[in-house]
Inverse folding.
């Protein structure tokens, strides 16, 4: 079970999805991915990796979505997960994620010159 504020958001999203025109299978996948997103947020807040309330305003929500997308770096489903996160943000009127579609960027590394 998610902590109270995130559980309430998941319930609101569940209700919004129920009114959507998405296929039942798509609703189930989006709901599962939104739950994973909210679980990741709750853990990141508890660990001190996300300051304050990560979905309190549009700027914080964009930063949170970006951090989540980066945490998915290297996974084959990062773009599909992002679609669900964007849908979550849109249906709950949290604003766009601001994260471009495509593979998650790799963490910054200094290139090594071969000689």
């Amino acid at each position: 079970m998610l902590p109270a504020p995130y559980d309430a958001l998941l319930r609101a999203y569940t209700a919004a999805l129920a009114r959507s025109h998405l296929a039942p299978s798509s609703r189930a996948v989006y709901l599962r991915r939104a739950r994973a997103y909210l679980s990741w947020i709750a853990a990141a807040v508890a660990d001190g990796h996300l300051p304050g309330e990560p979905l309190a305003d549009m700027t914080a929500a964009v930063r949170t979505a970006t951090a989540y997308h980066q945490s998915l770096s290297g996974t084959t489903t990062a773009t599909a997960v992002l679609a669900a996160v964007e849908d979550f943000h849109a249906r709950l009127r949290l604003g766009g994620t601001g994260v471009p579609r495509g593979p998650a960027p790799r963490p910054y590394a200094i290139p090594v010159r071969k000689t």
Q: What stands out?
A: Residues 24-46 form the longest helix (23 residues).
